Amino acid sequence: MRKQIAAANWKMNLTLPQAEQLVKELLATSYQLDENRRVVLGVPFPYLTAIGSRLDQTKYFDVAAQNCADKKSGAFTGETSVEMLKSIQVPYVIIGHSERREYFNETHAMLATKVDLALEYGLQPIFCCGEPLAIREAGTQNSFVETQLKESLFHLSAEQVQGFIIAYEPIWAIGTGKTASSNQAQEMHAHIRKVITGQYGKEVSDSVSILYGGSVKASNASELFEKPDVDGGLVGGASLVATEFSAIINALKKP
Ligand code: PGA
Q1: Quick one: which of 78, 81, 214, 216 has the most CB atoms within 10 Å?
Q2: Rounded to two decimals, what is the model's pTM?
Q3: Residue 97 annotated among the catalytic residues of the structure
């Protein structure tokens, strides 16, 4: 079975005491987690070590960085390399979030380099894709997302894509309270899996976890996660509220 993942994206929110309190509350709830049902917290860079060490005693909670540099090292003031993340035992890195693409002009080629660096250092990328509203309204979302995957991932080998994590996040649903319907999510997830099958074959595409992101909340998580190609969620706003995110974790598909 491919992994089911509840991933939080805290973005640029919370002070360290607030973050520690949130984690304390999250860990006070009991969950049915195992090797194939995991929680990943995308926390701001300065908290990776503090929050990561709080999760050390848990088996199925890990931290993720929200970004990484597209350079190995050197004179790039303010950037954080994958090697640095590796040296503080960060296992996951979110790559290609729409906010990075839009506000920081991240291109397909830069994202491809970030993915390569992450894999070179043994971090698991959580690669984000998703279309803006105008593309959805024009009905060309399938080819738009296909291009994002082709341009930044399809240079990888089948071995590298085995067990990969993709997050489909329609931009019109991010932070807007407007969730894609579970049928719209399933439709796109099935399309993504079909495109991966075309490139790498069914065995590889069946192993890829495709998370849905965009206004996931406790009240809609179960309906979304029940869909066969939705393998969990990447959650922004609702991941900042312990009761909300706990319920989202508990909505992951059971075996
Ligand atoms: P949202 O954000 O859950 O607040 O819509 C999701 C994301 O940007 O990853």
Answers
A1: 216
A2: 0.97
A3: yes
